[in-house]
Write a structure and sequence with these properties.
Blueprint (H helix, E strand, L loop, with lengths): L1 H51 L11 H36 L4 E6 L5 E4 L3 H5 L3 H6 L2 H4 L2 H8 L11 E9 L5 E12 L6 E9 L1 H15 L9 H18 L13 H8 L1 H17 L1
Antiparallel strand pairs: 1-2, 1-5, 3-4, 4-5
Helix pairs in contact: 1-2, 9-10
């Protein structure tokens, strides 16, 4: 009776069992990790003796062919568990890198210019979620000027031989702006064969502010904050060149403070500095 039931079950279930087992094993590995997948496989080996092999009077595996089937079954299951575990580990490492750095990693379809992936740090950088950014046209997600550069992206070379770096001011969700350095390169996706543009956006607002402060310090007097001789010579050269081109004249005014030396000698240099600052403020307001 039991042998007849086993025969009927074996004949009807064997093909379906082979089809369903391995997806179930992958699902077990996904939910329970390496341990969950291994436990699921060991429990399933008992079903191998009952369903997957010719009916016997005992669940014990005595035939060499049957033992070979079980070992092959187990070996394939272990390979699936190991490969899936390595895949999860690799995906976890990639996710940790893209989600825990300040730079935004993104992938753009080179044909449609639609964003296919944007890493979560975009929420800190621009205030938009990845889903909101990916739903935008490329002109809004990046900048109109950068969108034109992407449309004209040279298609001859790929990878490190064809990298474009741009510094652009992007608009945040709250209306403020942030300076970003965007590094882009064309690559071919080895799985789909489609050409993609991979980019990394880095917030360089602090660097831009520091550069502006250094530029201002190099071109302005530290005491009065008025343009110094470097900036004066630059503007004078531009004005003279424009006057020669347009056949016009240039006016130059020279201002001197009368008896300023007496203020320094009688009241000290601190009072003299205050006087110079007061005069500079009036000049800027004139």
């Amino acid at each position: 009776m039991a042998l007849a039931l086993q025969s009927r079950l074996w004949e009807s279930v064997q093909p379906l069992a082979f089809v369903l087992f391995y997806p179930a094993l992958v699902l077990s590995s996904w939910i329970g990790g390496r341990v969950g997948g291994t436990v699921a496989m060991l429990l399933s080996i008992g079903l191998v003796a009952w369903f997957f092999m010719a009916p016997t009077h005992s669940l014990l595996i005595s035939e060499a062919d049957d033992m070979g089937r079980v070992l092959s079954f187990a070996a394939i299951g272990l390979v699936i568990i190991y490969a899936h575990d390595r895949f999860k580990l690799s995906a976890e490492h990639y996710r940790n890198v893209t989600e825990n750095i300040n730079d935004v990693v993104w992938v753009l379809d080179a044909d449609t210019l639609r964003l296919r992936y944007v890493s979560p740090p975009v929420l800190r950088q621009l205030g938009y979620s990845p889903e909101e950014i990916m739903a935008m046209p490329i002109e809004a997600a990046l900048t109109p000027v950068l969108a034109e550069r992407l449309r004209d992206f040279p298609a001859g070379r790929e990878g490190l031989h064809n990298v474009i770096t741009e510094e652009v001011a992007q608009t945040c969700k709250d209306g403020s702006s942030v300076w970003t350095e965007i590094v882009m390169s064309r690559v071919t996706n080895p799985r789909t064969g489609k050409v993609e543009i991979h980019g990394v956006s880095r917030d360089i607002t602090e660097r831009k502010q520091a550069e502006e402060r250094l530029r201002h310090m190099a071109q302005h007097d530290a005491l009065t904050d008025l343009p110094n001789r470097i900036l004066f010579d630059e503007h004078l050269g531009v004005s003279l060149a424009a006057a020669r081109r347009d056949r016009t004249t240039v006016g130059l005014m020279f201002i001197d403070l009368d008896r300023f030396k007496e203020v320094n000698d009688t009241m000290g240099h601190r009072i003299g500095d205050l006087l110079i600052r007061a005069v500079s403020q009036r000049l800027r307001q004139a």
